[in-house]
Amino acid sequence: MPSTAVLARESAPSHKVLDGRALAQRIRAEVAADVAALTASGWPVRLVSISAGDTEAARLYVRNQSRAAASVGMDFEARDYPGDIGSEELTGIIQGLNTDPRVTGIIIQRPTPAHLPERRLQRSVHPLKDVEGMHPANIGNIVYNDLKMGPCTAVAAVEMLRETRMSLKGLEVTVIGHSAIVGKPIAFLLMAEGATVTVCHHMTRNLAMHSRSADAVFVAVGKPGLVIGDMLKPGAALIDIGINQVDGPDGPRVVGDADFDGCHEVAGWITPVPGGVGPVTVAMLLRNAVTAAKLQRDHYAATFGETAPG
Ligand code: NAD
């Protein structure tokens, strides 16, 4: 006869692995309907991706984005430029895309060559065409709780937490990693929802103390195995944003920043890597692309008094 402890464990609800692919699919269906309506009103959604220099590094991302765009009826053009292209020339090309009404979104692929700092290129994209949500104006709007186009990964990570159906009001959340495009925007998005947020980084003295007291933990660092089960409060949600390639017995594989098996034992909800935040990030890019096209349509109507360019 099994012991009471075993019976209790067997009848306990199973840990919930948050399925990013399913959520991404739902978002894509909404986006596809929006794209069809925009196209019918004279505003087809068209994205232009810009890679410079080591275009091989971003090839997988570009291919994923291109397929995802096609799946919702968006046009996607991938442009590769040589690594020695001048800063003036490339920003001139971006300015041209900014003023071309047939282009509704611009994506700057990383890494960029050293003489073309990523932030400078990102700044040259018009905020209304910044589908990655990384222009300083769009990042800054988050501080004012004005979320039009947020940085895709941060918004995707928060969407994954929403999947738990936990109320965010007063929720204790620890965010590990404070980069400008992931950790910090996550903290602001959560504060806007009423969460109490602690932000940890490489100088944090006692990471486990902060993670253990949280109802939800976000980790975006880039270090496999950084978060272990012992660092979590039982039942907490763990949103793993890290993407790391490690050697496995069957060759290289992709893992997050958490020890999945150990954390799965303790957490109430956990995101897998791959199949968690990643697919939702691409879906958010598509959602931003729709938002961008709608904002440009409204701006065009307000400026020219016409609904669409001829
Ligand atoms: P980053 O290098 O800009 O920032 C890393 C952050 O981790 C910094 O805030 C740093 O202080 C912190 N950190 C470093 N060591 C730490 C430690 N020991 N303890 C606590 N904090 C520590 O990285 P990023 O661009 O924010 O990306 C983070 C991770 O997220 C990477 O693995 C990246 O590949 C991944 N990422 C995933 C997606 C996605 O779509 N899922 C998108 C972007 C980035």
Can you walk through the features of this model?
- The chain is an alpha/beta fold.
- The protein folds into 2 domains: 42-129, Leucine Dehydrogenase, chain A, domain 1 (Rossmann fold), CATH 3.40.50.10860; 150-280, 3-Layer(aba) Sandwich (Rossmann fold).
- Helices cover 43% and strands 16% of the residues.
- It has helices at residues 4-11, 20-40, 59-71, 87-99, 118-124, 136-143, 152-162, 183-192, 207-212, 260-266, 277-304, and strands spanning 16-17, 46-52, 75-81, 105-108, 172-176, 196-200, 216-219, 237-240, 244-248, 251-255, 269-270.
- The chain is globular and about 60 Å long.
- Residues 153, 176-179, 182-183, 200-202, 204, 207, 220-223, 241-244, 277-278, 281 line the site of nicotinamide-adenine-dinucleotide.
- Nicotinamide-adenine-dinucleotide binds at residues 153, 176-179, 182-183, 200-202, 204, 207, 220-223, 241-244, 277-278, 281.
- This is Bifunctional protein FolD.
- One of its GO terms (biological process) is tetrahydrofolate interconversion.
CATH topology of the largest domain: Rossmann fold
What Rg, in angstroms, do the CA atoms define?
21 Å
- Tell me the fraction of residues in β-strands, as a range: 15-25%
Give the helices and strands as they follow along the chain: HEHEHEHEHHHEHEHEEEEHEH
CATH class of the largest domain: Alpha Beta
The largest sheet has its strands arranged as 1-11-8-7-5-6
- Largest sheet entry: 6 strands, parallel
Distance between the termini: 78 Å
User: Which structural class do you get from the secondary structure elements?
Assistant: alpha/beta
Give the total of beta strands. 11
Mean pLDDT: 93
**Sequence stretches where pLDDT stays below 50 over 5 or more residues:** 1-14
The CATH superfamily of the largest domain bears the name NAD(P)-binding Rossmann-like Domain
Family: Belongs to the tetrahydrofolate dehydrogenase/cyclohydrolase family.
InterPro entries: Aminoacid_DH-like_N_sf (IPR046346), NAD(P)-bd_dom_sf (IPR036291), THF_DH/CycHdrlase (IPR000672), THF_DH/CycHdrlase_cat_dom (IPR020630), THF_DH/CycHdrlase_NAD-bd_dom (IPR020631)
Binding site for NADP(+): 177-179, 243
Pfam family, one: THF_DHG_CYH_C
